[in-house]
Amino acid sequence: MEVKKVLFISQEIAPYVPENPMSVMGRALPQGIQERGVEVRTFMPKYGTIAERSNQLHEVIRLSGMNVIIDDTDHPLIIKVATLQSARIQVYFIYNEDYFANSRIHELETTYSPEDNDERSIFYVRGVIETVRKLRWVPDIIQCNGWISALAPLYIRTIYSDDPSFRDAKIVTALYNEPQPQDLDPRMGEKLHADGIPKNALKSITGKPVTYEMLMALSLKHADAVIQCDEMVNETVLETVQGMDMPFMPFDGSDERVQHIYDFYQSL
Fold this sequence. Notes:
- This protein has helices at 21-35, 109-112, 117-135, 152-157, 188-194, 212-221, 235-242, 257-267; strands at residues 5-10, 39-45, 58-59, 67-70, 73-76, 78-84, 89-95, 141-145, 170-175, 225-228, 248-249.
- It is α/β, with parallel strands linked by helices.
- It has a single domain, classed as Glycogen Phosphorylase B (Rossmann fold, 3-Layer(aba) Sandwich).
- Strand 6 (78-84) and strand 7 form a beta hairpin.
- The termini are close together.
């Protein structure tokens, strides 16, 4: 089947955050894929560093209003959107003041309040999934960029496995040379189970601090393919990939990288 729709669940997208290999790819890849005739949807967290007025963000009322329950607490889901005029793509922002500051700060919330990163990741992934469902949009490919999106394959292959929006999609986990978060809350597995994730899918993280390597291994276990987006990535994670029987695209630093990724999508 020809790939016609691609969903990008991204951690960082330039110019909304400073340029680095992940944020540059977060912008360039959706643009390049769209230029090849594919419909794209792109998501990222609405960090406090992102100025709403200068970036022309506005709330999408029809998509906002749902509550995401995490650890018995309701968290309102607010969806904002902006358009990257030069790239001609829309970016959807997942926002909640409990996890993403409502005023500008100098560093990302994932850095200055890491104690909330487990719930921040759960909220972001659930927010993206529920928004895509509200849009009644059915992607052929879902690419997860960055550790904050790593739970998406787990959710999609368990709770949402029969959902028409995700049932037939192929999930790609992208690997980056990204700053690794401090270990996540040992209760993360408990919180995920309370959200509906089966216990047998959480054995690897239950009752222990969740390291970056453990989180990415959980993502890879439920993904369909892997793309290495940086030349140097976490060696333990790369060894996990090499021990799995799944399509793998090694690092490609050429000018034709977007075309090669597009071809990789088609091969899935």
